[in-house]
Amino acid sequence: MKISGMNLRKKKELMEVSRTYFLDILERMYEHVTYYNNMSPFPIYDTEYVNDLKELIEKMKETKEEYNDLPVYFCTHCKSLHIEVDEQNNDICHRCGAVNEIAKLANIEEYNNKYSKIWE
Ligand SMILES: [Zn+2]
């Protein structure tokens, strides 16, 4: 099941409820989406999504928590780590909109080994 970007935009408060984010992957995602948006005559990735991503990166830079040993959750469709939890406890992929289609790995290193190529 998927929900549209429109629905996600109405749920701005979701941005406040975050699972685990990882700065290096987020920054690579950000570079990826801004690169392709700049190459294209019109934005491929929703500009609000791109801005949200940037906000998250800034937020993460301010936190002092150690993320390297935490389990990671990612979307099984697009492998994005950008998962939000809504009011009904649904896991929503903020990139492709997939709902409750997430998988878990023990830590970011495992994720990087498997999927980091996606964001290059
Ligand atoms: Zn996804």
What is the helix tally?
4
**Major pleated sheet:** 2 strands, antiparallel
- The secondary-structure class comes to alpha+beta
What small molecules does this complex bind?
zinc ion
Distance between the termini: 28 Å
Order of strands in the sheet with the most strands?
1-4
What's the average pLDDT? Answer: 76
Helix and strand string, N-terminal first? Answer: HHHEEEEH
Radius of gyration using CA atoms only = 14 Å
Helix content: 25-40%
DSSP strand tally:
4
- How much beta, percentage-wise? 5-15%
Q: Which shape, going by the Cα principal axes?
A: globular
Low-confidence stretches: 1-21
Total domain modules: 1
Topology diagram in text:
Layout: H1 5-10, H2 23-39, H3 47-62, E1 72-75, E2 83-85, E3 91-93, E4 102-105, H4 108-115
Antiparallel strand pairs: 1-4, 2-3
The structure holds zinc ion.
Residues 75, 77-78, 80, 93, 95-96, 98 line the site of zinc ion.
Describe this structure in words.
This protein has 120 residues and is an alpha+beta fold. The chain is built from four helices and four strands, in the order H-H-H-E-E-E-E-H. Strands 1-4 form a two-stranded antiparallel ribbon. Strands 2-3 form a two-stranded antiparallel sheet. Helix 2 runs antiparallel to helix 3. Zinc ion binds next to loops.
Brief descriptors of the model:
120 residues; alpha+beta; two-stranded antiparallel sheet; two-stranded antiparallel ribbon; disordered N terminus; binds zinc ion
In short:
This protein is an alpha+beta fold and 120 residues long.
